[in-house]
Design brief:
- The chain has eight helices and ten strands.
- With 233 residues, it is α/β, with parallel strands linked by helices.
- The protein has one domain: 3-Layer(aba) Sandwich (Rossmann fold).
- It has a seven-stranded mixed β-sheet, sandwiched between helices. It has a three-stranded antiparallel β-sheet with strand order 6-7-8, with no helix packed on it.
- The radius of gyration is 16 Å and the shape is globular.
- The two termini are 26 Å apart.
Length: 233
Amino acid sequence: MLFDDKMKLEDEHRKIKEFWDRKMSQRSKSPPQFRYQEYFYLKYRDQIKEPILDLGCGDGEFLDMVCKDGKLDIYGLDISEVAVQLARKRLYPYLGNSVDERIKMGDMIFTSNYFKKDFFGTVVCEGTIHQSTCTGARMTANEIHKVLVRGGLAYISTRSRSTIPDHATQVEGERETYRMVGEGGVVRCYFSREGVIRLVEDLFEIIELEEKEVILRVEGTPYKMWILVLKKP
């Protein structure tokens, strides 16, 4: 990536961090929703191996569920400082003094800077890989591949282009990337089926790919997501 392109992407991610710091401050006021990472966990429970990494871990909801099921070798990464503090507080009863080492603040396009390569048995990335440009999403897919062990499972959910909001404007020079006018001007990807396959097909074996409808937790808005289960060859 050229230096100017890298600086532009990092600037976009600074906006995304500010956006999610605000969103996470509202999270406790939001109703619960069905999350497909729970569906993934229950369906593939016998194949899910530790250590487990949750990319875009938010307030630690998924990792809390995993710990309650007896899997305590967990890690999380989130770009939002607010989210990381909430997750550390929530997961402290399981992780104790190691919570700060395991639940980190950082950008998922640099995941392998925070964690060892070929380390995780399972990586979960629920509704976060699209919080970037298409270039950034591809970088994250590469980072998941780097930190996942051979034969390990990855779960990714990402926005479908079938529910692009009216206030979105396409970003020039970036495939399937839109700027959210009225949402702080952050960028977000909305993938076609072909686009989401292109994102991962040369990195992983695709075990499952389906389009599902979910309800946005904070706003209560319905939208569609691509649900992917992947294996590192």
